[in-house]
Structure formats: C-alpha cells, structure tokens
Amino acid sequence: MDDGTIEAKLAALGLELPPECPPRASFVKYRLWNGLLVLSGQICEWCGEPRWLGPVTEETSVEEMQKAAQMCALNLLFCAREALGSLDRVDQVLRLGGFVNAEPGYGRGPAIIDGASNLFIDIFGERGRHARTAVCVSSLPVNAAVEVDALIAVS
C-alpha cells in the first residue's frame, strides 16, 4: 500500500480507497501508455456492490449524488494506484468524463459530477484541475446513478 502524501490527504478528509475494484465486463480497468493513464469508467459501487441507483430525478438530493460521484472517483484512484504503484506519480489530472443516469430533462448533472471533480482538486491541488464533460444519460451499468472516467498524465 502507498504511504505517499496523496493517500495521507485522503485519510485527512476521512476517506479511503476501496479494498478492491473488480471490472464488471470484458475490459481492462486502465491502460498506461506514453505517460498517459487512461482509466475506464467506474460506477458508484463499493467492492462490486452498487450503492446508488438511478434514475436521478428532480427530487433526488444533489448532495447525495455528489457522494456517488465521489465514490466513482475513489474507485478511479484505486485503479490509478494499481497501475502506478503510487498516487504520488500523478502529474496532472487532464480530463474527467461524468455520466448521470437521469430522467429526461434533468439539468443538474454537472453539479453532481462536481463530487468527483472536487475530490481530485482537494487531494491533488492545482494538478487535480481538469477539463471535463458531464452529461445525463438514460442508463448506466446495473442501473448505477453515476459513472466517471479519467485521463491522467503521470511521471
């Protein structure tokens, strides 16, 4: 396990990485190539158990869904650590893609994906600021409420 400063920042926030992050289908969790780490989309699940289901509606708490997006980010960080050996090798979070399983016409998807974005900024500082796409979709794997993927530059 990594003892680096990034995991210390997570601990200071009262957060931890999941003990595992099994893939749900026939794909790899990450691909490291030429200093870029491409992380496959991760849903709001803990050790394979979905925690928030969609669709998100106007009655759904944005703050609760931000926690779902944060869980996606924790799964992404688990995969990044698995790929790199240490999260301290992250030079820059380049891009996040966020997907919210929402009812037609739902417009607060970007605010939900802020749960993932803010975690990356909180732990990586300026290196965590990134370009981003945040969209609402009609479904996600196992009816999960949120999915997030990432592209990261590494040393």
Automatic annotation (TrEMBL):
Boundaries of every Endoribonuclease L-PSP/chorismate mutase-like domain copy: 7-146
**Coiled-coil boundaries:** none
* InterPro entries referenced in this protein's UniProt entry, alphabetically: Endoribo_LPSP/chorism_mut-like, RutC-like_sf
Task: Write down the Pfam families for this protein, in alphabetical order.
Answer: YjgF_endoribonc (PF14588)
- Protein name in the entry: RidA family protein
